[in-house]
Amino acid sequence: MTGNHKNTTITRRRALAVAGGTVAAGGLAAAGYQSAFADTTTSTAKATTTATATSSASSGTCMELMSSVTEGPYYLDGALVRKNITEGKSGVPLTLRLTVVDATDGCTPVPGAAVEIWHCDAWGYYSGYTTANPGGSAPAESEDGSTANDKTYLRGYQVANAGGVVKFETIVPGWYTPRTCHIHLKVHTGGAKEDGTYEGGKVNYTGQLFFDDEIAESIFALEPYSKHTGSYTKLADDMVYDGGGASSGLLTLKAVHKKDPSKGYKGFLTLGIDPDAENTGAGGGGGGGGTPPSGAPAPSSSPSA
User: Fold this and answer.
1) Cα separations in angstroms, 225 against 71, 134, 189, 213, 222
2) How many CA atoms lie within 13 A of 49 on its CB side?
3) Angle formed at CA 298 by CA 296 and CA 302, multiple of 5 degrees
4) Is the distance from CB of 299 to CB of 76 less than 8 angstroms?
């Protein structure tokens, strides 16, 4: 079944009895978050992400400018500024450390840049669009047992520190037809934090982050992902990913425990942008949006602050 259900207002408060059974089966995050989200120093994160971006470049050169792509059909204004965006959604823990650099100026960090991300849950549902069919066969989004806010889960901003680094705590996304596993992102500059979100400025870059096929498939064999069955699109067949590796958004992923993917992953990438450019990704550009078979109904409202 594809899971149409009635949207609730603001925060859904589901019965603990329901949560008990579902989360017991799908709650991989519990022990994994402690290790996957363990803090390291900012300098370590900055050094790691910078090395990832420049490993193939000769000394003294900068990574290539990353190309903007479509924002897709599931963007919502008003995401909250926060590090942990899970809101209790079950899945394999993922720590993202992203570094924003100016690719037009020797890859110097861009402090104050606001990085915004959003992605689907383990069954392919986005907040704000919880009745959109993810393709294949999946439980209704409401059956996940979480108390997540239908309008805000798995969406958020972080503002880059002096080294251009932001960190998010989330889960590995699931998939929906006809897209591969991915995370959407925008890089904003010139605005400021206001009323719990980020206002003003402009969007310099709109992109997507991608996952290695082998890693994604090992995760999708686990609960709760395995409850969504159907045809998963690999990287080579995706309508947005162009095969360019890190410069096209392919994450460097490190397992918290090499023999147990349920423990989580740490993902690294450096985003080479042009701070003078503007690209919202709205209305297309660089690949299709990838709407699911039944289409994406308009959300009832933007996320609440």
Assistant:
1) 24, 12, 35, 15, 6
2) 32
3) 125
4) yes
E strand or H helix at 98, and its extent? Answer: strand 93-102
Cis peptide before 178 (omega within 30 of 0): yes
Output b/e per residue, 179-218; b: 16+ Cβ within 10 A: bbbbbbbbbbbebeeeeebbeeeebbbbbbbbbeeebbee
d(CA 154, CA 139): 18
Cα–Cα distance, 120 to 89 (Å, whole number)? 10
**DSSP 3-state assignment of 101?**
strand
As a whole number of angstroms, the distance between CA 215 and CA 193 comes to 35
Structure confidence by residue, pLDDT tens digits, 251-262? 999 999 988 999
Question: Which one, of 167, 59, 172, lies nearest residue 124 by Cα?
Answer: 172
The distance in angstroms from the start CA to the end CA of the chain is 32
Please report which confidence band the pLDDT of residue 218 belongs to, taking 50, 70 and 90 as the band edges.
very high
SS3 144: helix
Phi-psi region of 3 (alpha: psi -120 to 50; beta: other; left: phi over 0): left
pLDDT digits (tens, 9 = 90+) for 222-268: 999 999 999 999 999 999 999 999 999 999 999 999 889 999 999 99
| DSSP letter, residue 10 | S
Query: From CA 262, how far away is CA 249, in angstroms rounded?
Result: 23
pLDDT digits (tens, 9 = 90+) for 58-94: 334 577 889 999 999 999 999 999 999 999 999 999 9
pLDDT of residue 64: 80
AA identity, residue 243: G
